[in-house]
């Protein structure tokens, strides 16, 4: 199986957004776009029109991470705007099962994100509705924060659930993923990796992705779950 690296443009230069997306086009599998509303998280980034513009200008598929309240109302619109994957926070959804169904009905992969303080066990029964589960490894809201290694058991548990279900749900980690931490994430069970500052705060973002990929692949090869 192949892993996926999804660079987060939150750490890119917004003044040259399309160029910044193109800088990673050779090596990125997805483009991670963080949508924040200063309500669900204490930060405000970009919204639907900008996501739409990125989709129209860039060929890399867009992986939208919605850190917004009222996911029920907004999530399907991001799929309709052309994002190929739309991830909502379970803490922000009144009816997460329906949100996942609406995202899929609008033509995108449905992802569910979980904050560090949220108990995974409460949402296990939703896995069958999902294409991806995102375990946050920082408190959502800002790039450049320190990786929370105490979330790794949750990544491992999520991988166990996916293995038991015998389905191809992707398991994403986001926050503090870098050359120092990606191997731990892969070993625990992640197969899809978001990295913002570790990609864009380097002189060669495309090469940074290649280096991250190499480390993740190596770690999965010898891991308990073996990348199945
Ligand atoms: C944070 C965002 C992340 C952020 C990651 O809430 O969801 O996608 O861009 O940035 P780094 O990789 O720098 O921690
Ligand atoms: Zn994100």
Describe the structure.
The protein is of the alpha/beta class and 228 residues long. The chain has a single domain, classed as Aldolase class I (TIM Barrel), CATH 3.20.20.70. The chain has 8 helices and 8 strands. An 8-stranded parallel β-sheet has the order 1-8-7-6-5-4-3-2. Helix 3 runs parallel beside helix 4 (96-105) and helix 6 (182-188) packs parallel to helix 8. The longest helix is centred in the last third of the chain and has 17 residues, at 205-221. It is globular. The mean pLDDT is 97. Zinc ion binds at residues 8, 32, 34, 65, 174, 194.
Descriptive labels:
binds D-xylitol-5-phosphate; binds zinc ion; 228 residues; TIM Barrel; alpha/beta
How is this fold's topology laid out?
Blueprint: E1 4-7, H1 17-22, E2 31-36, H2 48-57, E3 62-67, H3 71-80, E4 85-89, H4 96-105, E5 109-114, E6 132-136, H5 152-165, E7 170-174, H6 182-188, E8 192-195, H7 197-200, H8 205-221
Parallel strand pairs: 1-8, 2-3, 3-4, 4-5, 5-6, 6-7, 7-8
Helix pairs in contact: 3-4, 6-8
Summarize the structure in short.
The chain has 228 residues and is an alpha/beta fold. It has eight helices and eight strands, in the order βαβαβαβαββαβαβαα.
Which structural category do the helix and sheet elements fall into?
alpha/beta
Main sheet specs: 8 strands, parallel
Low-confidence runs of at least 5 consecutive residues: none
As for the number of domains, it is: 1
Radius of gyration from CA coordinates: 16 Å
Q: What fraction, in percent, of the residue positions are helical?
A: 25-40%
What is the CATH architecture assignment? Alpha-Beta Barrel
Which CATH top level class fits? Answer: Alpha Beta
Rough outline = globular
Distance between the terminal alpha carbons, to the nearest Å? 7 Å
- Main sheet strand line-up: 1-8-7-6-5-4-3-2
Count, helices: 8
CATH superfamily: Aldolase class I
**Ligand types:** D-xylitol-5-phosphate, zinc ion
* Beta-strand content estimate: 15-25%
């Amino acid at each position: 199986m192949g892993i996926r690296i999804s660079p987060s443009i939150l750490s890119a230069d917004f003044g040259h957004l399309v160029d910044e997306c193109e800088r990673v086009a050779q090596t990125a599998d997805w483009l991670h776009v963080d949508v924040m509303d200063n309500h669900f998280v204490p930060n405000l980034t970009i919204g639907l029109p900008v996501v739409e513009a990125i989709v129209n200008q860039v060929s890399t598929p867009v992986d939208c991470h919605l850190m917004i309240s009222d996911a029920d109302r907004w999530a399907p619109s991001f799929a309709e705007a052309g994002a190929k994957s739309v991830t909502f926070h379970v803490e922000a959804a009144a009816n997460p099962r329906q949100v996942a169904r609406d995202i899929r009905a609008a033509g995108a992969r449905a992802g569910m994100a979980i904050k560090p303080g949220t108990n995974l066990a409460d949402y296990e029964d939703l896995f069958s509705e999902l294409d991806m589960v995102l375990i946050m490894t920082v408190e959502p809201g800002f790039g450049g924060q320190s990786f929370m290694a105490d979330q790794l058991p949750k990544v491992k548990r999520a991988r166990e659930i996916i293995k038991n279900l015998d389905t191809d749900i992707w398991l994403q980690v986001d926050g503090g993923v870098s050359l120092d931490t990606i191997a731990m994430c892969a070993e625990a069970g992640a197969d899809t990796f978001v990295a913002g500052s570790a990609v864009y705060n380097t002189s060669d973002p495309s090469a940074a992705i290649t280096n991250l990929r190499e480390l993740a692949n190596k770690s999965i090869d010898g891991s308990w779950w073996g990348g199945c």
